[in-house]
Design goal:
The complex is a heterodimer of chains A (178) and B (161). Chain A is built from 4 helices and 7 strands. In chain A, the strands form 2 sheets. Chain A has a 5-stranded mixed sheet. Chain A has a two-stranded parallel ribbon with strand order 6-7. Chain B has a 3-stranded parallel sheet. Classes of the chains: A alpha/beta (178), B mainly alpha (161).
Chain lengths: 178, 161
């Protein structure tokens, strides 16, 4: 079996998915392709299956919250970090999601490893994945309220104790009696 | 304990019931097998040969809380683990004691965030706090001996109703 030569992923995506392609960012030797979230599954399946691209390893799914910064196309973004074992190169596919409806199609049909990665994205950032086989919280308790990694979620439930406010914090602390 | 030899060398020792029972309780307080995080490694090394815990009778950790006397909370208690800690503490039979080992179990340690309980004494009543991150085995043994002093100071009116 002959191995096809490596193609440029940016040119391939631009030609095949011209309407979903938004932008490309090149930084040092990292390539990021910004796409429309509605067509994420065909794009990623194309990247995995096409000879010459073969991005067959999904390293990570990273959701980002840009909360006070509304200059971007959406409040949330989700990045798929792909790695091609055959050609030894990496690619990032990024999609911006709006604040009112952070919903995107699940890619578990392409990489089964995305099951837990998307569950973490749902648990921590609140991004919902359609057609996910098991979308529930993975790190926090199942009945937890809120999504902790969002920027408007409070960091802790107790103020930091210094010597000047230690007494009042200790008085209001709910110590357990038998 | 008062040693008053009666009738030569019959070797009779007299003591109050309080002293005898408290001494027996300090002799072998079986800990519950309950290590959560990094402090558990220091606990394991305290249990090993150099800093032996077998000299206190604590060489065996009971996996079942029903058979344990002492719960050493070694490590940070997350809010997901909190109901479990409370249930294990409730399942322990009297007399029972709790040692909060390390900074995270005492006050939340370096973690002041949504996931870590700021001090396991928000969930269960603690007898002895040991500070350190992690506390060295000498500190843990000092904490255990403090607990022994506390047990020896218990009055009979508290535990014999």
């Amino acid at each position: 079996m002959t191995i096809a030569e490596a193609h440029d992923p940016v040119e391939s995506i631009k030609s095949v998915f011209a309407d979903a392609f938004k932008d490309v960012v090149l930084f040092r030797d990292e390539t990021t392709i910004h796409v429309d979230p509605g067509q994420i599954v065909p794009i990623l399946r194309y990247l995995r299956d096409t000879p010459g691209l073969i991005y067959n390893y999904l390293s990570d799914i990273s959701p980002v919250d840009y909360y006070p910064d509304y200059s971007r196309p959406g409040r949330f973004s989700i990045s798929y970090h792909l790695y091609s074992m055959l050609y030894n190169r990496r690619l990032r596919v990024k999609a911006y999601l709006p604040e009112e409806e952070p919903v995107i199609e699940s890619v578990t049909s392409i990489w089964p490893a995305a099951n837990w990665l998307e569950r973490e994205a749902y648990d921590m950032m609140g991004i919902e994945f359609k057609n996910h086989p098991n979308l529930r919280r993975i790190l926090n308790p199942i009945d937890w309220d809120g999504h902790p990694h969002r920027r408007d979620y409070p960091l802790s439930y107790e103020t930091i104790q210094f010597s000047f406010n230690a007494e009042e914090i200790m008085q209001r602390k709910p110590f357990a009696r038998e | 304990m008062g040693v008053t030899p009666k009738l030569g060398n019959l070797g009779v020792v007299t003591a109050t019931v309080e002293e005898a029972v408290n001494w027996a309780r300090t002799g072998a307080t079986w800990p519950l097998l309950f290590g959560l995080a990094c402090c558990a490694i220091e606990y394991m090394s305290t249990q090993a040969s150099n800093y032996d815990l077998a000299r206190f009778g604590m060489e065996l950790n009971r996996a079942s809380p029903r058979q344990a006397d002492l719960m050493i909370v070694a490590g940070r208690a997350t809010r997901k683990m909190a109901p479990v800690i409370r249930q294990l503490y409730d399942q322990m039979a009297d007399p029972k004691w709790v040692i909060a080992m390390g900074d995270c179990a005492s006050t939340g340690g370096v973690y002041n965030n949504y996931a870590v309980v700021q001090g396991v004494d928000e969930i269960i009543p603690v007898d002895v706090y040991i500070s350190g991150c992690p506390p060295r085995p000498e500190q843990l043994i000092h904490g255990i001996m403090t607990l022994h002093e506390k047990i020896r100071g218990e009055r009979i009116s508290e535990w014999a109703s």
